[in-house]
Amino acid sequence: MKKKNKQEKAALIRLLGIMSSYKLHLILLFVCAIISSISSVLSTMYLGSALDTMLGKDNVDFRALSRIIIILAILFLSASLFQWFVSLISNYVSYHTAETLRKKMFAKFGKLPLSYFDRSAQGDMISRFTNDLDNVSDALSLSIVSLFMGIVIVISSLIIMLMLNVQLALTILLCTPLVFIAGFLISKFTRKTYITQQATVGNMSAFVSEMVGNQKLVKAFGYEDSSIVTFETINQSLFKTATRAQFASAIFNPITRFIDHISYLLVGLVGSLIAISSGATIGMISQFLIYSSQFAKPFNEISGIMSNIQTGIASLKRVFIVIDATEEKQEDGTVPDLKCVKGAVEFKNVDFSYTKGKPLIQNFNLKVAPGSTIAIVGSTGAGKTTLVNLLMRFYELNGGAIYVDGQDASQVTRDSLRRSFGMVLQDTWIFAGTIRENIAYGKPDATDEEVVAAAKAAHAHSFIRRMPNGYDSLLEQDGGNLSEGQKQLLTIARIMLTDPEMLILDEATSSIDTLTEIRIQKTFLAMMQGRTSFVIAHRLSTIASADMILVMDKGNVVETGNHNELLAAGGLYAQLYHSQFEPS
Q1: CA distances (Å), 322 to each of 106, 127, 132, in order?
Q2: Residue 271 and residue 267: Cα distance in Å, rounded?
Q3: Is residue 77 predicted with pLDDT exceeding 90?
Q4: Residue of 518, 520, 463 whose CA lies nearest to 492
């Protein structure tokens, strides 16, 4: 618990550090809060004075009453106007603070290694970026107003009460510690509950995102009922956690109001005794009755937003967990770019494992001549895609080195290394935008002629031309209005446009019909001429013409050679090949 408290304090201190950028706004806010609060407190004093001008039916000091009414009108107007300024400035500060956090978090996404995303649920990450940041913004906006206005009201009303009557002021003060004690005990009880609540919200977002994004599979496997059961389990957990959190938080408001009512009654009782003994006026007693409510108002307001504050703190911690995550090692300006790429690649004594203590690739060695086509085959989990991930430095090696044209890939900038490769993956990625923008993603300054030429080369031009607005047709997110084959053709056109020095094709034609695949293969062969190409394929017929075939098993290369050599050897490649083309 102490560790969690320290984490919360550290998170709040960091938040204040971000808010320090808006010092002038906060100073202006405090000034407006002072004017608004003092106007409100003074209006109470003048209300009491107004009552004292009306001593009886024929005993009213109309001149004094008129003057007080004018003053009250000015004070009410001042209190309302500057209260509006306080709300306006607090919203500005809170929204801009949330904007800063959102920028930091989004920038962090680009600096995190792929391993972080592999072990994090996509829905939970989105929930942190949207729900949690919104909670922080809401809590900040509400608490700034309550804090600034509350401090001034408590101090100013206390000073005036002591000036008017010490006994009545002390009567009100006697009840104040009870409010602090109640607030401390309840916040201590609810802190853990709100943290659990936000974690459960993240789990639900992750599950719903998974189910919505894979509805075809859900329906195909008849998983609807099972998904509802799982959802109900998470939903019930959230319901119970949220109910406990809200119940505990809701108790605070009635408790503070109960204490407020006790204070109200005590003021009336003590005021009556003072009126009998020393002649306190009705106006003074009325003033203190109002002051007792004003003095307790900030505590009541804080109790009313306690759930927002607790949720905001829990969300803030979740946001900072992402912002503080270990980044991919950043490069300084001294790291050189990869230059004069011809396509010679060498893996030298490479070791790699995704999980410490569970080696996947050990002492792997391979030399690839420029312009060669290297096919990588093997059963699922053999390590084919891992080789590509290492080649692109999506993951760092545990040992050994990878050289591109004699240059250590770990000693050049990642950006220049990755730009030298063109990747077409099995999983397509289409963003919401026009077809033209999707094809030109890797080369935004491409001309219309270049975009069309790339689409024609990828055999995508014909279906694009049939779209309502051709290349200017808008695509839904993830290409929902395209078939899987059409999406794959666009990703192929995207790579053809960038014209990279080396290629990585990971099941690049897996979603395309056989006839189109044959045409695409011819286009690939033309594009691969003179370029070093790494081709991962399960359909072995597509890599028969490769210069070298690597057969992988459990992270190791167990066979190398061309298609005919490996068939003649009768090893694992031959088994895989015959299993695809010969009846069992």
Answers
A1: 10, 12, 12
A2: 6
A3: yes
A4: 520
Query: Over the stretch 510-548, which tens digit does the pLDDT of each residue have?
Result: 656 667 667 667 666 767 777 888 888 766 666 777 888
| Residue bearing the bigger pLDDT, 529 or 281 | 529
Rg of the chain over Cα atoms, rounded to whole angstroms, equals: 35
CB proximity list for 382: less than 8 A, separation 6 or greater: 552, 553, 554, 555
Largest CA distance in the chain: 123
CA distances from 323 to 94, 103, 380, 552 (A): 19, 10, 34, 38
Instruction: Check residue 584 and give its pLDDT.
Output: 47
Cα distances from 102 to residues 13, 95, 134, 204, 320, in angstroms, run 18, 10, 10, 21, 11
Phi, psi of 197 (to 5 degrees): -60, -45
Q: What are the contacts of 456-459 at 24+ separation with CB within 8 A?
A: 457/493, 457/496, 457/523, 457/527, 458/489, 458/490, 458/492, 458/493, 458/496, 458/520, 458/523, 459/489, 459/516, 459/519, 459/520, 459/523
pLDDT at 234: 82
Mean pLDDT for the stretch of residues 400-427: 86
Q: At what angle do helices 282-304 and 133-164 cross, to 10 degrees?
A: 160
Lowest pLDDT segment from 157-161, 298-302, 333-337: 298-302
Count the residues in the chain.
584
* pLDDT single digits (tens) 361-389: 888 888 888 888 888 887 776 677 788 88
CB 302 within 8 A of CB 183: yes
- pLDDT above 70 for 55: no
Q: What is the mean pLDDT of residues 260-266?
A: 73
The burial of 202, by beta-carbon neighbours within 10 Å (0-12 exposed, 13-18 middle, 19 or more buried), is given as buried
Report the phi/psi class of residue 324: left, alpha or beta, with left for phi > 0 and alpha for psi in -120 to 50: alpha
**Rounded to whole angstroms, how far apart are CA atoms 191 and 314?**
8
**Count of C-beta atoms within a 10 Å radius of residue 262:** 14
Check whether 583 has a pLDDT greater than 60.
Answer: no
The helix/strand/coil state of 353 is coil
Residue 179 is predicted with a pLDDT of 67
Read off the tokens for 372.
């060669």
Buried b (16+ CB within 10 A) or exposed e, 14-42: ebeeebeebeeebeebbbbbbbbbbbbbb
DSSP lists the bridge partners of residue 474 as 434
Answer whether 440's CB lies under 8 Å from 451's CB: yes
- Report the SS3 class of residue 38: helix
> Averaged over 116-120, what is the pLDDT?
79
Closest CA to 532 of 546, 550, 551: 546
Average pLDDT over residues 331-355: 84
Distance CA(279)–CA(474), nearest Å, equals 81
163-214 confidence digits (pLDDT tens)? 777 777 787 777 766 766 666 666 666 666 766 777 777 777 777 776 766 6
Listing DSSP states for 411-452 in one string gives GS-HHHHHHTEEEE-SS----SEEHHHHHGGG-TT--HHHHH
